[in-house]
Amino acid sequence: MAEQHGRSRSRLQALDAAHHLHPFTDSQALHQKGTRIIEKGEGVYLWDADGNRILDGMAGLWCVNLGYGREELIRAAERQLRQLPYYNLFFQTTHPQATELAATLATLLPGDMQHLFFTGSGSECNDTVVRMVRHYWATQGRPERKVIISRHNAYHGSTLAGAALGGMKPMHAQGGLPLPDIVHIDQPYHFGEGQGRDEHEFGLERARQLERKILELGPERVAAFIGEPIQGAGGVIIPPASYWPEIKRICRQYDILLVVDEVICGFGRTGHWFASEYYDLQPDLLCMAKGITSGYMPLGAVAVGGRVAAGLIGGGEFFHGFTYSGHPVACAVALANIAVMQAENIVERVHTDTGPYLQRAWASLGEHPLVGETRGLGLVAALELVADRQSKRRFASGLGAGLVCREHSFDLGLVMRAVGDTMIISPPLVITRAEIDELVGKARQALDLTYQTLM
Ligand code: PLP
């Protein structure tokens, strides 16, 4: 049996090396090591081509919120494929699934967000944001309001506009990014950039960089500020409590639209349907994807608040849309996903039970000699690997401590992700207390092995 697994794995690895270019992957490094092949998922677990069971501590890419193998979602997709596998939303047409989903989302969203524009992904949401924001200001007779302010180390996707809005240096280095009229300020990353400084003051200072940037550019040129409530791919960066209220104040004072990217935070990750509730953000635009279908189908949506919706509705045709905007199968799966989340009180459970349980257990890793900080909210968490706990001195960057820890973790049967030397987790929202114990136990073992490897 093991031999059979090995043969099938080797064959796929050879084909993969010969024909497949992977996203976010150094191909040469991959070919040396051989691609990891995931074949099956059930609940919070994955199985690889060698038959190993692995706890998926990242819910795929922060998306498989209901876990793998949910019959309700599979049946919804199958029903919709038979009924109407495709139709579009262009040219005065809809299908019941898109309209029902828009109406359902409107009941879950914070503030006055009553309108939805569907896309096929988070990146497409952010491309849509750039076009929508600029079009909105043009409808208000202010076409010079074009500049969108984002943050260094933000992640808003991989399309041209998504990567430009994002603040990932290696992405900007490839392909001449960012685009004109997209600028960045510093992130509210206290552990990484505010060591030794009062957290509250640091949060205010980072938020006030927005005000300085607006004044530097001229408020009449600035269209919007965009941010993830908690930066995910940047390393699960939870801003100081002083940060978002100050950002809100500045956006209001200068009449700048507030765009919140909830592609990771949305759909219960933080113990709220949207993290905008937790931070009381009242955004003008809100991006969602990933958890909207628990990753079973590609789908994204931009929620639009009253003011922008009125501008768009009154502004003539918006020349924008995707063939797969609001794909009917994806919308059917999203409706089933939301129905299951409601029937099983998933968001409530994360808020009151599994979220606090995970955070308590995760915080106990803070006593490990390799850990300089733990942090988290709901079912997303991070820890910082350090060479010296007392001074919080980091490892030399060439050492790749995070990657060492990630590989140990995988070998132990847990997917943890490394962002530099920050280890992050974001498990399926259906994870049980017993599975959380397993996750944290394996993370601790991975830290022990990393210690043995590096110290
Ligand atoms: N926005 C955020 C906050 C994300 O984390 C991601 C993906 O990780 C995206 C946008 C891009 O989404 P997609 O990969 O679906 O295009």
Automatic annotation (TrEMBL):
One Pfam family named in its UniProt record: Aminotran_3
GO cellular component terms, semicolon-separated: cytosol
Family membership: Belongs to the class-III pyridoxal-phosphate-dependent aminotransferase family.
Cofactor(s) essential for the protein: pyridoxal 5'-phosphate
Xref: PROSITE patterns: AA_TRANSFER_CLASS_3
Keywords, alphabetical: Aminotransferase, Pyridoxal phosphate, Transferase
Domain of life: Bacteria
Stored InterPro entries: Aminotrans_3, Aminotrans_3_PPA_site, PyrdxlP-dep_Trfase, PyrdxlP-dep_Trfase_major, PyrdxlP-dep_Trfase_small
Any one GO molecular function term: pyridoxal phosphate binding
UniProt cross-references to NCBIfam families, sorted A to Z: PRK06105.1, PRK07480.1
Protein name: Aspartate aminotransferase family protein
